[in-house]
Each structure stands twice: as structure tokens, then as C-alpha cells.
Amino acid sequence: METWDILRNVWFLLIGVLFAGYTILDGFDLGIGALLPFLARSEDEKRTLIAAVGPVWDGNEVWLLAGGGALFAAFPMAYATVFSGFYLALMLVLFALILRAVSLEFRAHDPRRRGLWEAAFVGGSVVPALLFGVAVGNIVVGVPLDARTEFAGTFFTLLRPLPLVFGALGLSAFLMHGAAYATLKTGGDLRARAQRAGRLLAAVVAAAFALSLAAVAVYLPAALGSIPAWAFSALVWLSLGLFAAALKKGRDGRAFVFSSTALLSLWGIVGAIQHPVLVRAADPALSLTIANASSSALTLKVMLIIALVGMPLVIGYTIFAFRVFKGKAGATGPGY
Amino acid sequence: MKVSLAVFAASAILQLGSGHAHSIQVTRTQPEKMAAFEAQWETMDGAPFTVFGIPDEKNERVRLAVRIPKMLSLLVYLDPGGRVMGLNEFPKDERPPVFLPFAGYHLMILFGLLFILMGATGVWLLLRKKLGTSRIYLKLLLFAVPLPYLANETGWIAAEVGRQPWAVYKVLRTSEAVSAVVPAENILFSVILFGVIYALIGAAGLTVILRTIRGGPGGDSAGAGQGGA
Question: Is B77 a member of any domain?
């Protein structure tokens, strides 16, 4: 394998790591945002949940920017096709994230419109949590591309059965992950409610995952031949089982680890099905792969050097931030 | 008050230096952009600085122009005889529009000079121990709050319109850089939604800021310290 090929494969993996890291980190705060009206019964409980994600959610979102940026630099053809083709959907995600970002501040400082900002926080969490799965479903099942490898569909092309099932799977996995984090970070009645929600949501994720496997069998039968994908599927089932068991025993930290490995294993399946394809085209000859969509070897090499310096820094400050805010969150706790 | 006045007065002067350096750099690397900023069509040795004027793009001249002879050459080259390129040196389809860059650039400079004047006035009042009692000056400062934003925006408009028709200078035209498959209505939709969302956030922010100001120092700021980030 020549250097360029190695670099392309490394970047395929690294972008996967960035997106997987993003779902593990931002997944729980999107999940908590979406679960807020169901878990919290009082203003104090709402504040506790918001305090649990308050100091970390924006750092978590950096992983999405890093993933998008890396995709742009490493595989510009794929980036161009996806960001132009999914324009409206991505704009919806962007608007949702903007409103969600400001809603936490305004909820605290603009009490007269607290209901409005709370709705923005909840809606701004649900929309991205749903649409990320829809987007992944589309690049996995394949989108219509023209001869220039430009997207040849409309917004509604994106809402086909397999992407919608993937969207439901992604949303339910984020909700489960959010419930796991809420269980870990709160106490009393709120924690008990989050724990029950987590176990219920593990069952929902299992159902959505089974449905997703069925959808893949119908719409992408070729993927059934991938042995690594089956191995990762087994890890998803194992993670879900261990998650539910840990939650039942009150091992909150361990439960959060297993909801994270469930998300990681889902990404493992996507990577196994996709490699070396980035964006599958309805006509396989037009698919964008790591070979025909990548930047030059020099660009990939420079990026790799930057990543080798930058990623340890990001991982380091992420660990630092979570250590600073470790322990249970409170409605009136100090510092946040 | 003393600290912010010191920062204001010092940064207003530093801005002049940084703006000056940028103008020199633009003249060197993108001469047609500087020509648009100054609405100058003819290449000239010892080019004047236009203090005021209304560029007339169709007839390639500036109406009601008030100029300082040789000033532009002096500013960008430190040499009153330096040659400043005009727009006529460039093919018509590679020239930026003139009116917006000209107006934006000059407004930005006007704001910058105004800030220096205001900063100097403040320092002068402080030295004469009249800063706290000068009602007119303090009122002026209050109403000047939006001006740095305006200066920022006018400069931004000058820079972005002045770089047209290029998205990447001499490599990629803006018309070629546009997404091939995003329908115009989708872009209109997103621009409108951006406007609506930012108006909403801006209005809400302003409400909160005004309420906090009315509360006075140490007054109510509704649960400050909550809500993270």
C-alpha cells in the first residue's frame, strides 16, 4: 500500500473517531435536553439537569465541528456533495443548535419567557439528535448523484425508510445515553426517574436496532456479507444487555460506559459497511470513496501532523473539564 | 471608568496603526481592491486621498469629490509620488463594484478617527478632573455604544464586496464557487430564517441587557450564575 492510501485510510478512521466521540459526548447532553420535560418535575430538578450539562455541552459540540472540518479538508468532494445535497436538513440542524446554545443562558436570565427558551432547548436537542441518524442512513443506503457527483434529489429524498429508521435509532440511543448521564449526575427522585427511563430506553434502542437490521437486509442486502459488521452488531447487543444490568444494580458509572460502547459499536457497524465508501451513490460507479474524494497526500500528511498535536490537547482538556465538574450536579451548586 | 477609558483611548490609536498596515498590504497584494476603496480608475503617481465623494460607476468618476493631493500615495508608500494602480488596469469582468467598498471603507475610517477624538477628549477631561461631571461627554459615550459594531460592519462590507468577483483571488470566481445543486429558494429560506432567529435573539438579549442596566449596579439579574457555559 502506498503512502497516500495509508493516509486516506487513517483519515477515514480518524473522522470516524471524531464523529463517534461527538455522539458519545454531545449525545448525552442532546439526550438530556430532549428528556428534560419527562425527567424533571420541578424547577429545581430542571436546574439540576441543566447544571449537569451546562459546563460541558459546548466543549462536546467542538467534536462535531472538528469532524466536519476534518471531512472538508481530507475528503472535500464528499463534504461538497453532502453539505450542498443535504442543505436544508443541515440548516435545520444549525438553527436548532443555535437556538439551543442561547436557550440555556436566556432561560436563566429572561424568566418572563422561560417557557419559550425551554422549548428551544428541548426542540434544539431533538432535531439534531434525530437528523444525525437520518444523515448517516442516507450516506449508507445511497443517494442519487449525477455525473458530477452532485446530489440529484430533494429534501424529501432524504426521508426514505432506511434513513428514517436510522434516525429513530440515533434518537433513541441519544435518549438512552442522556438518561444514563442523568442517572450518574443526579440524586434522589430525579435519579430514580432517570434510571427507570434508561432501562425503558435500552429496550427502545434494542427494538430500533432490530428494525435497522431489518431495513439494512431489505435496502442494502450486500452489507449482510460484512463479518466485522456482524461482530460490531454483537457488541451492540452485548452493550445494551450490560447497560440494562448495570443500571438495575445501581452501577451508574458502568452503565454510562456501556451506553458509550453501544454508540461506539453502532459507529463500528457504519464504518464496516461503508469502508472505503464515504457517500454511497444510487449508481455504485458514482460513489464517493476515500480514493476518489480525498485531498492530496501532502494535505493529508500535514493534517495528520496537526491532528497528532491537536487531538491529545483536546482529549486532555476534555478529561480535565469533566474532572473539574465530577460528582453530582445540584440546582444551586457553586461554580457553574 | 478610568480603566475602560485607558483601553478605549489606547486601542483607538492602535487601530489606526493596524488599519494603516492592512491598507498597505491590500495595496500591495490586491491593488484593484484599494482602487475600489478609493474609487480610483486611473493609475496615478502621487494619488490623492478622497475625503468625500459619490462614486459614479457608469461614468467612472467621483461626484462632489473632496481630495487631499498625493495623500493616498503618501499613506500607502510613505512616498508622495508612489504609483497607485487604478481600476482601468484590470479587465472589466475582474473589477469589484466601487460604491459599497468606497462608502464602507471611508465610513470605517471616519468612525476610527472619531474614536481617537473621543478617546483623547476623555483623557483630557480626566486630566482636568472633569470626567465625572461632564454630562455631555458621558451622554455621548452612551450613544456611541453601537458605533464600534457599525465600524466593524462597514469595514467588513468594504473587504467582502471589494474582493469580488473572486472567492479565491485570481483562482476561483464567486459565481463558480456557488453550490451547483442548492436551489435559490432554499438559500432565500435559510437567509430569512437566519434573519428571524438573529432578530429574536438580538431582541431578547437587548431586553435582558436593558433590564439589567435599569436594575443598576448590584441590582437584580435574575438568577445570575445559573445556566452554565
Answer: yes
pLDDT tens per residue across all 229 residues of chain B: 788 888 888 888 888 888 888 888 888 888 888 888 887 887 888 788 887 888 877 777 777 778 787 778 878 877 777 778 788 888 888 888 888 888 898 899 889 989 989 988 988 888 888 888 888 888 888 888 889 999 999 999 999 998 888 888 888 888 888 888 888 888 999 999 999 999 999 999 998 888 888 887 765 544 444 444 3
Task: Verify that B168 and B193 share a domain, yes or no.
Answer: no
What is the domain count for chain B?
Answer: 2
The answer for B 122-181 residues in CB contact with A (under 8 A) is 179-181
Q: How far is A81 from chain B (nearest CA, A)?
A: 9
| B197: nearest CB among A98, A104, A150 | A98
- Using CB atoms, which residue from A87, A108, A148 is nearest to B227? A108
Chain B contact for A53, CB < 8 A? yes
Within 74-103 of A, beta carbons closer than 8 Å to B belong to 80, 83-85, 87-88, 91, 95, 98-99, 102
CA-nearest residue of chain B to A334?
B225
pTM for this entry:
0.83
Instruction: Flag whether A140 is in a domain.
Output: yes
Residues of A in contact with B191 (CB under 8 A): none
Alpha carbon distance A55, A164 (integer Å): 32
Considering the domain architecture, whether residues B46 and B66 belong to the same structural domain is answered as yes
* Domain count of the fold of chain A: 1
Range of the domain at A310: 3-322
Domain end among B139, B155, B176: B176
Between helix A114-141 and helix A3-39 the angle, nearest 10°, is 140
Residue A193 included in any domain: yes
Both B196 and B140 in one domain: the answer is no
- Contact indicator for B76, B24 with CB cutoff of 8 Å: yes
Within a domain: B228: no
CA distances from A20 to A169, A201, A265, B187, B215 (A): 15, 20, 9, 30, 46
Is A284 in contact with A205 (CB distance < 8 Å)?
no
Q: Which residues contact A22 (CB under 8 A, 6 or more apart)?
A: A60, A61, A63, A64, A66, A67
- Domain that residue B204 falls in: 179-223
